[in-house]
Amino acid sequence: MSKTKTKQARRELKRDGARKIAAHQRKTAKAATISTNAPKPPKKKQKMQAQPVQASQKHDVPFGEYEHILLVGEGDFSFARSLAIEHGCANVTATSFDSDTEVREKYPNFESIHDELTQLTPPVPIHHSIDATKLSSYKHLRCTREDDDEGQDGWDTICFMFPHTGGLSTDVNRQVRANQALLVAFFKSCLETTSAKQRLQILASQVHKNHPSPLRPRSQFLRMGGRIVVTLFEGEPYTLWNVRDLARHAGLKVVESWKFDASQYPGYKHVRTLGTIEGGGAWKGEDRDARTYVFEKIPLVADSDEEKELEKETGVKKVKERTRTRTKRPRKGSDSDDD
């Protein structure tokens, strides 16, 4: 065989080898594409569970050891027990809407909790048959703060955990309206603004603290700057209550809100309005997502009719006019009284 034919044979062998390698690469790439585009088996559905609150997201407990705290609408009083014993809150007063007999019938564990609270030094005052919408009408619930340097009376914090009217109706809209009415009446009772006369009393004291008008109230149920704490479940129908808007409309300042963490209150158990279910049941309120809202008491703002009534009864000029007088700037070239 000549040298020329030998070279041609070698070149043909190289070409055949290159074709085989290219064909193998195309086959491998095609197989990889098919496996990538192949439909994946469906995943099993996962059950939706409430996510635990991470340590970095936890909010401090909004109750101080020496604050004067009024608890409203207690069930078995396990929340009051947690504040007094686990958190060391020394000035807690706890109330329930139910009578003493009803509480003992609904919640069997109240007996032991009652003994713990009443054996403390000093004991935790427990009051039954207290309507949250008429709080300020109960004279024995008023908080006198003799040790306060500012000379102000009133509670530091009023707390209503999971307010609910109960199963008054199966209609969602009626339930929403009923619970909104409950919250509004509760807010106004804390602020003592249930009636027009009460509002005028407070407005008169704001206009002139030393004015000798009979409209001036003797003391405050919730001190100025005091807080109202409300905890509600998240999701409908609770979000339909619009608790923030209700509080603003009542004259409160919305301060903050955060996810409620029941584990921060050892010994606390959420109970139903209707009472404990025999056998415990599968429903546990502590495992449901909930949110705590904080509102602050701020000075009331008088409307035009109230301004006229105040001027008529007290002889004090309108608040708006007094404000304009205080903030009026001196004209150019005039002397200032600030020297």
TrEMBL record:
Q: Which domain of life is it from?
A: Eukaryota
Which protein is depicted?
A: 25S rRNA (uridine-N(3))-methyltransferase BMT5-like domain-containing protein
Q: Which residues form a coiled coil?
A: none
Q: Which ranges are annotated Basic and acidic residues under compositional bias? A: 9-19, 309-324
Identify the stretch(es) annotated as Disordered: 1-58, 306-339
Q: Name one GO cellular component term.
A: cytoplasm
Q: Name the species this protein comes from.
A: Phaeosphaeria nodorum (strain SN15 / ATCC MYA-4574 / FGSC 10173)
| PANTHER family the record matches | FERREDOXIN-FOLD ANTICODON-BINDING DOMAIN-CONTAINING PROTEIN 1, PHENYLALANYL-TRNA SYNTHETASE
Q: Which GO terms describe its biological process?
A: rRNA base methylation
Q: Name one GO molecular function term.
A: rRNA (uridine-N3-)-methyltransferase activity
Q: Which InterPro entries match?
A: BMT5-like
Q: What is the lineage of its organism?
A: Eukaryota, Fungi, Dikarya, Ascomycota, Pezizomycotina
Q: Residue limits of the 25S rRNA (uridine-N(3))-methyltransferase BMT5-like domain?
A: 70-272
